[in-house]
Amino acid sequence: MQKQYLMTPGPTPVPAEVMLKMAAPIIHHRTPDFSAAFKDAIEGLKYVFQTESDALLFACSGTGVMESAIVNCFSAGDTVIVCRNGKFGDRQKNICEAYGVNVIDLQYGWEEVVDTDAVAKTLAENPGVRGVIVTQSETSTGVLNDVKTIGEIVKGYPETLLIVDSITGIGAVECKTDEWGLDVVMTGSQKGLMLPPGLAACTVSAKAWKAYERSTLPKFYFDWMKYKKNVEKDTTPFTPAVTLVLGLNESLKMIREEGLENTIARHTMLAEATRKGCEALGLTLFAPAEGRGSAVTPVWVPEGVDGKAVVKIMKNKYGVTIAGGQDDYAGRIFRVGHLGYFGKFDIITTLAALEMTLAELGYDFERGAGIKAAEAVFMGE
Fold first, then answer.
1. Three-class secondary structure of residue 131 per DSSP
2. Burial 162-201 (b: 16+ CB within 10 A, else e)
3. Contact yes or no for 276/332 (Cβ under 8 A)
4. DSSP labels for 233-249?
5. How far apart are CA 279 and CA 281, in angstroms?
6. Complete DSSP assignment for 17-30
């Protein structure tokens, strides 16, 4: 028997309490029981998003809610600024172009942070821009972009929205939707919300609703107004993922009990321990020091080591599933997730498996150094 540890940035482990809640007999979605649960879910989402604006919940993946933001906020021929420094920034650009939205492309290397001064300059030089789109926590790279500063910039443009992909940010890093002036913020269930894949949520500010009124892009399933009108009646316009909504309430309850600030602090500690552990093994971190999020730690594969073999051996021999690199970085980096239902000993276990794997692959390092460094973080040394 091999015990399995899921250490990816999504899907993430699901707590037993949540799984038990989802294992209860199914209920009908047009009943008072579901309406009460759905109402609680919306209020809980507002808590984690830190917003008093509308929160909408969809039965879809994160990509679905990304697409919903484009079709509800813009029209064909509108111009938006897309800030991209990873795979999911690239996806935002692709969605815009699929709908005939013109893109001013602020492209950066995957190891770089979005330049907020460049955002300000681009906005100033391009009157009539309808939106700025940015990924807060880039899953593919571990880079954390400064959406707080970008929010301050975009506040000065009353006709321009700030749309933030925080799919791996919510619950792991600070994201003060209302205070920072973020008009649309998105997340997915299989990340910090500690659920299986299948739900996605977003916030919609008053400014975003004004954009909705002028938007002419086609929309049906993802028409935000359908959801808003139904949320006001504690229900959904289409058949919801009933079981996931019930599980969501349990996970949101757990976050409330821990306290959002404490949840974010836990993620910060886990990320720091992972980084210190990897550096103690002589490994190089991928994301720049000035822009590292707390959801995932990508690490360069050391020279002479087969990066794909690292991921394979850790899973098949030691039962620890981590993520490899994506696109051009496949086999060149590996990614350790610590987003959602993770604790100190998940990191210790992962570092132990990593050490044994690297030793097997012939990498020269001091055995136990990674575990020792992580323990020092956890012990406050």
1. strand
2. bbbbbbbbbbbbbbebeebbbbbbbbbbbbbbbbbbbbbb
3. no
4. TTS-SS---HHHHHHHH
5. 5
6. HHHHHHTSPP--SS
- Give the residue from 199, 83, 191, 189 showing the smallest Cα distance to 139: 191
The reply to whether omega before 240 is within 30° of 0 (cis) is no
In DSSP notation, 258-312 reads H-HHHHHHHHHHHHHHHHHHHHHTT--BSS-GGGB-SSEEEEEPPTTS-HHHHHH
* pLDDT at 130 (0 to 100): 98
Q: What angle do CA 90, 326, 290 make, to 5 degrees?
A: 70
Residue 381: its pLDDT value, please?
A: 86
Please report, rounded to a whole number, the percentage of residues in the chain having pLDDT higher than 90: 99
Q: State pLDDT tens for residues 220-275.
A: 999 999 999 999 999 999 999 999 999 999 999 999 999 999 999 999 999 999 99
pLDDT at 44: 98
In order of 122, 182, 186, 200, 333, the CA distances from 165 in angstroms are 20, 10, 5, 11, 23
Residues 62/179/294/15 CA torsion (nearest 10 deg): -60
> pLDDT band at residue 287, thresholds of 50, 70 and 90?
very high
- Candidates 76, 51, 370, 41; CA nearest to 219 is 76
Of 189, 202, 230, nearest to 29 by C-alpha is 230
